[in-house]
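Q: Convert this sequence to structure tokens.
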Amino acid sequence: MNSNSDSEFRTSRGYQKISQQEGGVSSAVEDYLEMICRLCGREGYARVGKLSEMLNVKPSSASKMLGKLAEMGYVKYDRYEIILLTEEGRKAGAYLLERHRILEEFLTRIGSPNPLEETELIEHSLSVLTVDRLNALLAFFRSDEQAFRQFQTLWGTSANKTEP
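A:
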């Protein structure tokens, strides 16, 4: 059993609030920044309409968030025009894309029935240290397939089994 007292326990929302108070950004900010980075990677820029379509939000909601992202120094944009990442936005977005890649690969390797959906649900709550350690574990499994096969046997014949 965990030695933490009940007074240290918080809900996921409670942990999110603490993170934001300590200078972290919300999961919504991360989702927008990650998608802008994806779109800019393809086209060199993003547009409000495409961003709102990809995130399944109204263009007015995307515009409002773009204002916040611009205030935070992540993007430059003119309303209903081209969205460009600043240097800070590129760095933050690159990290978010890499975190997503690492987590999705990890979940795929362990046999998640829906790694993309699960990645989207949990990626925002992971610390940088946890992401680094997951990446190290993935590197280990890539370098030693026999060890990975041993790991798979914990759940039966393959990591594609959905129940532990």
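The first helix runs from residue 12 to 21.
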